[in-house]
Write a structure and sequence with these properties.
- It catalyses: NAD(+) + ATP = ADP + NADP(+) + H(+).
- One of its GO terms (cellular component) is cytoplasm.
- GO terms for molecular function: ATP binding; metal ion binding; NAD binding; NAD+ kinase activity.
- By secondary structure, the protein is α+β, with helices and mostly antiparallel strands.
- It has two domains: 7-101 and 251-267, 3-Layer(aba) Sandwich (Rossmann fold); 107-244, Tumour Suppressor Smad4 (Sandwich), CATH 2.60.200.
- Helices cover 18% and strands 42% of the residues.
- The chain has five helices and 16 strands.
- It has helices at 16-31, 50-59, 88-96, 167-170, 258-267; strands at residues 7-12, 35-36, 43-48, 68-73, 83-84, 102-114, 119-124, 127-132, 137-143, 146-159, 182-190, 203-206, 211-215, 220-225, 228-233, 235-250.
- The strands form two sheets. Strands 6, 7, 8, 9, 10, 11, 12, 13, 14, 15 and 16 form an eleven-stranded antiparallel sheet that branches. A five-stranded parallel sheet has the order 2-1-3-4-5, with helices on both faces.
- Strand 14 and strand 15 form a beta hairpin.
- The protein is elongated and about 65 Å long.
């Protein structure tokens, strides 16, 4: 019997349950004549939780136009996971009927320019946060070419709509529906007194606008991009924009609506 023609990669964390699901799902896919391919897949299945989906995203961040993602969670409910570990047969059946439909969400582009001219570019699915390594960070923030404020505090984070429910929310930022193509700038413990002032609330930035951050001191700064951390010295500027590419998820009958995910994660069942 011929294969389905669909190339699938499976990525799992090291937890025993995730590894068990990995082997079981791989065999089910092979039995239904899917092609297991870890270099040029059509569909990437992450097994674990949201952290594993972030890892899968970054593995294939240079193939976003070609790849669609599916999440299987083996622990607590995740924002990026549609299937439980006991729904593998349903997942395989849905993939057999897959017509290529997708659900697409915005991605953050981060460009770091150093004083020596070096440029580093990153993509974030959730957020990118910047801090000074050992003391208060001071940086000028420019929004759409308008000098907006001189920030003093622990740092700032810029999040995507899907990332609005992650670190951004713990900082008091708003929850954005992922189909809204916008960024959110949120301060981390800003200093506000009679001498130093910032807006103090999170800011929603439209797709067409760019956020620029210019540190005022030549020192080490720590940049966190999703689940990875980098250290840079002598940053000239950091630019944040909506990326030209989006992340695509397989649109199946099991794709959970965003508001159901928010409710399940933060509210739960409401008592009548």
């Amino acid at each position: 019997m011929k294969n389905t023609g669909k190339r699938v990669d499976l990525i799992a964390n090291r937890k025993p349950q995730s590894q068990k699901v990995l082997h079981k799902l791989r065999e089910k896919l092979k039995k239904q004549h899917f092609i297991i391919n870890d270099t040029n897949p059509d569909i990437v299945i992450s097994i674990g939780g949201d952290g594993m989906l972030l890892s899968a995203f970054h593995k294939y961040e240079n193939q976003l136009d070609k790849v669609r993602f599916v999440g299987v969670h083996t622990g607590h409910l995740g924002f990026y996971t549609d299937y439980r570990d006991f729904e593998l047969d349903q997942l395989v059946a849905n993939l057999q009927l897959d017509s290529g439909a997708k659900v697409s969400y915005p991605v953050l582009n981060v460009k770091v320019t150093l004083e020596n001219g070096d440029v580093k570019t990153f993509r974030a699915l959730n957020e990118a946060s910047i801090r000074r390594s050992d003391r208060t960070m001071v940086a000028d923030i420019i929004i759409n070419h308008v000098p907006f404020e001189r920030f003093r505090g622990d740092g700032v984070t810029v999040s995507t709509p899907t990332g609005s429910t992650a670190y951004n929310k713990s900082l008091g930022g708003a929850v954005l529906h992922p189909t809204i193509e916008a960024l959110q700038l949120t301060e981390i413990a800003s200093l506000n007194n009679r001498v130093y002032r910032t807006l103090g609330s999170s800011i929603i930035i439209p797709k067409k606008d760019k956020i620029e951050l210019l540190p005022t001191r030549n020192d080490y700064h720590t940049l966190s991009v999703d689940n990875s951390t980098y250290s840079f010295r002598n940053i000239e500027r950091i630019e944040y924009q909506i990326d030209h590419h989006k992340i695509h998820f397989v649109a199946t009958p099991s794709h959970t609506s965003f508001w159901n995910r928010v409710k399940d994660a933060f509210i739960g069942e409401v008592d009548e």
